[in-house]
Every structure is written in structure tokens, then in C-alpha cells.
Design a protein that fits this description.
Chain lengths: 318, 253
């Protein structure tokens, strides 16, 4: 107990010193991933008070007409610092923001873009409206003061799926679902870069709080058919080829089978959480904790299907 | 010289380890434990025993539905399993008499905040043993209204039982889901309304297992029990809630 207190004091002193030098600085460094195209690559950890929620990939494309932003990050501070990072790359204005889906790490930076049209799929806008307040509270609980002043700003415009040309870049706006009820993928036909949002994870376990596995798998098929040159996943490294799509598909199929077989053999939820992970996932960051979370999110439905034989009321038989 | 010091140090270490076991300090380090020991066990001595495992997630992803499995390995003659959650506004979760069943069981609970979840186990000689696990939680599970209240047909489905049996010749696993709001009485304007008693009885009406249940169990509670295989005989689930509504259903093997 005393050692723990001491460790806490040391952490507070050191943490305080670090923050005094650069208070809540995400140190965002845009990484050029293609012509006109930059990504801000977050860590593959969970949200902590150390990383302030910077566990997500965001991006921007500098076109002749101005900058197109894809996702605004986990907090107001992130959004502001992202905008400052964009201004260090170009003096062109931000003309458009897209939210790929309604999860907090992807849209709680919207406040920093209050003067720019922000668009999202209708289901995403509904999710931002319904869950945004709880998400902001939870971000504050997990990231601490990094999130102070963060409030949900719901995207005010609908995305219209199809082609949209901005400053010489032809963007294909693709309405999909599965990770959430509304997942926007964006393919820049000029560069061949696919901004996949959280439909694609690479080397970081997928999250499922609003997931439907079968539609998600269909969406992965649609993404694979695009033949993108490069993919920016919602979490994990930029990559060529289909590694992210394949790994996400592999995880989802394994998860679906594991939950189905567990329900069919009569396991209860806490027992399912203890099942071993396959070797190929054992070393993937957050695999164990995301698997446990997924059991909570998804197992109830599998269980109900397995319990479908409604017991006969005994009283009516007397 | 060095040799003596070493032996003395070992002796000290041994002594202090022995002292720690004799005092049986709460391994979950909860400030509530002394009060709970007084309230629920009348200050009877409790041994914390590694054979009692409480399986639960480290972090509750859904504070309304925290899955718990109590697993007792090689512990003979268990008469009673009392499950409590230290920091819940309503501490008692269930009080299980296994009778013919295996003494472990699974269920789901609501958590109001991070808390230890404990299984207090009484054996035939009257002694109490305990095991438990901490679950971190954003919380609020006990003061939120049940979700089924907003569905128009919840009253028609009240106390309806879904069940299934998995038999392997020796044992059978019974899984049950009972439609009930399990209102804690802590959500504004909604009185406590929860299942109080449950039993599984055989074809002669003799109880194979019994339990008392309390408000913290999740809405539409799901249970798993392990019983000796009774062959092709249907099991009967009986019970009632605190408003006197009866539960009575047959689960076909």
C-alpha cells in the first residue's frame, strides 16, 4: 500500500513536470502517405491518461481547393492540435470534414472544426446525437484532463454516397455498416488511398461495441473489391495490399465461430471470456481485453439463439 | 556469520507469512470487508481459499450485465454459496444451496461502481471459506431503469422461462433465462420488483437445488447450473418474485 502510494506520488510529480513542459500536447506529426495525403497515426493502446485518447488514425488531403479532413480525433484538444498540424503543412483552408463513424475517438474533435461543413452518414449522425454525451463523459473518465472542454458536436450534414470531386481529387464516398450502423469508407481515386475507418484494423484487435458481424464481413468484401493501392485503417499502420482487410476478416470469423460454438455447448459468458486465444492473435495488442469486451457485446444474441427452446409452462399442463 | 543471518532472515519471513495466513487479511483489500463479515457471517472466521474462483471480467463493459461464474474445484460438502458485491448499494446477490447440484454456478449482475464480487462458501462442518475478484466498472447499473420496461409486452412475458439442457450421461448443464425486470427500487419512481426464490425440482417434486435471489441480479436473469444427469426426465423450474408472481416451467432434456 505504502509502495503504491509512493509510486503514485512519483508518477504525479513526474507527470506534472512533463505536463508543465508541454501541457496536453499530443505531439501530432503528419506522415505523408501519398501525394497530397497525410495521416496522423495513433498508438494501438487503449485510451489512457498517458495518451489522452490518441489511439486513432486521422487523415487529411490537401487539394487545390482546400483541405479535406477525415475524422477529427478523440478530444477538443486533439481537434485543435490537428488543425494546427494541418496549418504547418499547408496554408490552404480546411473546406470539409468527414466523420467515418460515431465512435468517440473519431469525432469528439469536431468542436475544432465548428466553422467547416462536417458530414457523416445519417446513422452516424444519429449515433453522435444519442451516444455523444455518454462518450464525452467516458473519454473524460479514461483520458482525464486531456478531454476537458470536450463536448459532442454532431456532424450537421448528411454524406451523400457516390463521387465527390474536391480540388482535383475524386473521392468515392461508400456507405457501409458492420462496425457500427453507419461506416463511411472513402477512396481517393486520384491517389488510390482508401480511408477505411474502423471497418479495418491491422495489428490491433478490432472493437465491437456496436458491431454486427455478418454485415461487417460483407463490407470487408466490398472494400477488398476496390483494389486500393494503400489503406489507412482506423487503428494500425498504413499498408499496401489487403493485410488489414484479411486480418480483420480472420478475427471476425474466428470470433463468430467461437461464440456460436460456445453457445451451442452451453457455456456461460464468464466461461467464454476465459477461452484461450489462437496463437496468431495471442500477441496482437489488446486481443485479450477486446475479446472479453466482444463477449459482453455479442454473446447474448448467440446465447438466445441457443436457448430458443422455450420451456413449457408447467401450470398449463396440470 | 552470514549463514546465521540467512537462517534468521528466513525464519522471520516464514514467521510473517504464517502470521498473515492466520489473520486471513482480505486478499481483495476492501475497506468494506470487516463490516460485511460482521453483517452476513456474524463475524465467523473466514478462510480465503484458492479453490473458490470467481470468474468475472476485469472491467465491466456493461454495468447492467456483468457476467460471473463461481467455480469451486475439489471443495467437498458445500452447503451454501452466498454471493455479495461489496460496494453495491444492495450487497447481497444470491444465496445458493446446491443440494444435489455441483456447487458452482453462473449468473449476471448489475454493478453500481467498481467492486469486489465474492463467493462466501459454507461447508458441512459449518466453516466459511471465501474467494472473489475485483471488477472495475463505470457503474450506474443499479440506479438505471430496466430496459424491458419500455417494451409494451413485458408484463405478458413476465416469469416466462427459456431453458436448455446439455447432458453427457453423468452430468447435465441447465441454462435458464427468466423474463423479469429485476428492478432494484433505486431508479426514481420504480419500486423494487425482483425474483426472490428459485428451485429446480425433479419429477417427484423434490428440490435438486435452491436459491434465494436479490435485486442486483441482471434483468431477465440468465443462470447456468450443473446437475447430475437425470436421464430423459423433464426438470421443473419453480419460484416466485417479491410480488407473489409464480414461476413454474418445465425444461425438456
Amino acid at each position: 500500500m505504502i509502495t503504491r502510494l509512493f509510486a503514485l506520488l512519483v508518477a504525479l510529480v513526474l507527470g506534472g513536470a512533463a505536463q508543465a513542459a508541454a501541457p496536453f500536447d499530443y505531439r501530432l506529426k503528419p506522415e505523408k502517405i501519398a501525394e497530397d495525403t497525410w495521416a496522423l497515426i495513433g498508438s494501438t493502446d487503449d485510451i489512457t491518461r498517458g495518451n489522452g485518447g490518441n489511439i486513432v488514425n486521422t487523415a487529411f488531403v490537401v487539394t487545390r481547393e482546400g483541405v479535406v479532413v477525415i475524422d477529427s480525433g478523440p478530444t477538443r484538444r486533439y481537434g485543435e492540435q490537428m488543425r494546427a498540424a494541418i496549418a504547418r503543412v499547408t496554408d490552404r483552408p480546411v473546406v470539409r470534414v468527414f466523420n467515418t463513424h460515431h465512435h468517440p475517438d473519431h469525432f469528439l474533435g469536431n468542436q475544432a472544426y465548428a466553422d467547416v461543413p462536417i458530414a457523416a452518414l445519417p446513422a452516424t449522425r444519429a449515433g453522435e446525437r444519442d451516444d455523444g454525451g455518454a462518450f464525452a463523459d467516458n473519454m473524460y473518465r479514461m483520458a482525464g484532463d486531456w478531454a476537458s472542454g470536450t463536448e459532442p458536436r454532431v456532424a450537421p450534414q448528411d454524406v451523400h454516397p457516390g463521387r465527390l470531386t474536391v480540388g482535383g481529387h475524386e473521392f468515392e464516398l461508400i456507405a457501409l455498416e458492420g462496425h457500427t450502423a453507419g461506416d463511411l469508407a472513402i477512396l481517393d481515386r486520384h491517389t488510390g488511398v482508401l480511408f477505411a475507418g474502423d471497418l479495418v484494423f491491422l495489428d490491433r484487435a478490432p472493437t465491437t461495441p456496436h458491431a454486427s458481424v455478418q454485415p461487417w464481413l460483407k463490407s470487408l468484401d466490398a472494400l477488398a473489391a476496390l483494389g486500393a493501392k494503400k489503406t489507412l485503417p482506423g487503428h494500425g499502420p498504413v499498408h499496401g495490399g489487403k493485410a488489414g482487410i484479411e486480418q480483420t476478416r480472420d478475427w471476425l470469423i474466428w470470433l463468430d465461430r467461437t461464440l456460436m460454438q460456445s453457445a451451442a455447448s452451453g457455456l456461460d459468458m464468464a466461461e467464454v471470456m476465459r477461452l484461450p486465444l489462437p496463437d496468431r492473435f495471442e500477441r496482437m495488442p489488446l486481443a485479450r481485453s477486446e475479446y472479453e469486451r466482444s463477449v459482453t457485446h455479442l454473446y447474448g444474441a448467440y446465447e438466445l439463439r441457443a436457448l430458443d427452446s422455450v420451456a413449457l409452462p408447467a401450470m398449463q399442463q396440470k | 556469520m552470514n549463514g546465521w543471518k540467512w537462517i534468521a532472515a528466513c525464519g522471520l519471513a516464514f514467521f510473517s507469512a504464517g502470521a498473515a495466513i492466520a489473520a486471513d487479511a482480505d486478499p481483495l483489500n476492501s475497506v468494506r470487508w470487516p463490516d460485511l463479515q460482521r453483517e452476513y457471517l456474524n463475524d465467523a472466521p473466514v478462510t480465503f481459499d484458492a479453490r473458490i474462483e470467481v470468474l468475472a471480467p476485469k472491467v465491466a463493459e456493461d454495468s447492467m450485465n456483468v457476467p460471473v461464474t463461481v467455480r469451486l474445484k475439489g471443495l467437498p460438502d458445500v452447503k451454501r454459496v452466498l454471493v455479495i458485491a461489496d460496494f453495491n448499494p444492495i450487497v447481497k446477490v444470491l444465496d445458493f444451496q446446491p443440494l444435489l447440484a455441483q456447487p458452482g454456478l453462473s449468473f449476471r449482475i448489475k454493478l453500481q461502481q467498481a467492486s469486489p464480487i465474492r463467493a462466501l462458501v459454507q461447508t458441512g462442518d459449518g466453516n466459511w471459506l471465501a474467494g472473489g475478484a475485483w471488477v472495475d466498472a463505470a457503474g450506474g447499473g443499479c440506479t438505471a431503469p430496466s430496459t424491458g420496461r419500455s417494451a409494451p409486452d413485458w408484463a405478458q412475458k413476465l416469469n416466462q422461462v427459456q431453458g436448455r439442457v446439455w447432458r453427457d450421461g453423468q452430468n447435465q448443464r441447465v441454462r435458464l433465462r427468466i423474463m423479469h425486470p429485476m428492478d432494484t427500487g433505486l431508479a426514481p419512481g420504480i419500486p423494487a420488483f425482483f425474483i426472490e426464490q428459485l428451485a429446480i425440482v425433479d419429477d417427484r417434486g423434490d428440490a435438486m437445488l435452491k436459491l434465494e435471489t436479490f435485486e442486483p441480479l441482471s434483468e431477465n436473469p440468465v443462470f447456468s447450473f450443473d446437475l447430475p444427469d437425470t436421464g430423459a426426465v423433464a426438470l421443473r423450474v419453480v419460484g416466485r418474485d417479491n410480488n407473489g408472481n409464480r414461476i413454474d416451467a418445465k425444461v425438456q432434456p
